[in-house]
Amino acid sequence: MLPNKKGLEIIRTYMKIYNGSNEDFIKEHLVKELIENNVLVETEDETYTLKSENEEEMMHSKVGALKEAVYKFVKPSNIENLGNPRVLDLCSGLCYNAISALHYNKNSKIDMVEICEEVLFLTLFLDIPFKEHEIIKDKVREYFLNKIGIKYKSKYDNINIYVEDARKFIVNCNKKYDIVFHDAFSPKRDPTLYTYDFLREIYKRLNDNGVIISYSSSIPFRSALVSCGFIISERESIGRKRGITLGYKNPNFKPNRINKIDERVIALSINAIPYRDETLNLTKEEIIKNRNIRKEKLREKLIKVGKYISTKQIKKGNIPEDILKIQEENLNSSEIIIKMRREFFKDIYDEIFSIY
Ligand SMILES: C[S@@+](CC[C@H](N)C(=O)[O-])C[C@H]1O[C@@H](n2cnc3c(N)ncnc32)[C@H](O)[C@@H]1O
């Protein structure tokens, strides 16, 4: 899913006249036009966000675009306490996450990946109160000036910008990261970057103590992370009831557990069946349709072998006592989920999870 079509159209008209020396002119007109067309919207911390293709979803929540970057991504990543963190900023958009990462750790080395160059262009004309915005703007400027044939070399070698599909980037990437910011639109509307197959590629490119962070608490997403080998964890979020998700690679790490209801649902419900994209090039419609087919197949299989429990009953804790008791053990959430699955499905475990 992309940012709002009307918004992109407006930005494109200004991209066409951009020459590096008319930024003040563009700033005055572009921002005004986007606001007048109701596609650029002020959030509660006075920073701006763009509407998405689907009018109901914004690129950021209304509590604040910058605030969200700080409290949903950067602070939970513990970047402040790392030496020279290597950061993969997926879905860079208006660049709030990258700017905030630099603000909290100036030694960060950041690879930014964004499919839509128009949103990157827009950051040149926004007022974002962290001074590190100037660094990111300088890199964005380098990208757009080089594109129109004007030679310009930014002095900030610690930032790279890749304008491409994150799926393509990840398969061609041979670097390792300490932190991955995963900031795609919500999986219900676009699961492209929430599939087991994409997340597995991220897992391979994380350092042993690395972490992936997402604002999403989606069940199939968390379930996919468990299947990839991540230790899943959650933290309170600003502006929404459900927490953000963190996935750690180090199997010896024992982070906060996710809530117990989600643990049970991920372990036993057919709603936890992950999105798949084996070739990493399916459309969002294909990914959703294929998952629905596998989900139905799994439901039929579980009913047939007498192992189907509805999500409503699982949430209430109406599952066998010995399986429920596993949640009292001193394990991390991923270990709990895998143990509940193994002990509940027993000898049909492999068959069930081959449908996953
Ligand atoms: C929720 S916004 C991200 C906000 C951003 N992190 C920021 O700090 O402003 C989602 C972004 O993902 C981008 N996107 C969507 N699909 C993508 C893909 N397959 N690869 C890379 N970026 C993608 C969209 O263009 C949009 O800018």
TrEMBL record:
SUPFAM superfamilies xref list: S-adenosyl-L-methionine-dependent methyltransferases
InterPro entries this protein is in? Answer: MnmC-like_methylTransf, SAM-dependent_MTases_sf
CDD domains reported for this sequence: AdoMet_MTases
Record GO terms (molecular function): oxidoreductase activity, acting on the CH-NH group of donors
The record ties this protein, via Gene3D superfamilies, to: Vaccinia Virus protein VP39
Domain (MnmC-like methyltransferase): give its ranges.
131-250
Coiled-coil stretches are none
| Superkingdom assignment | Archaea
Query: What is the designated name of this protein?
Result: Methyltransf_30 domain-containing protein
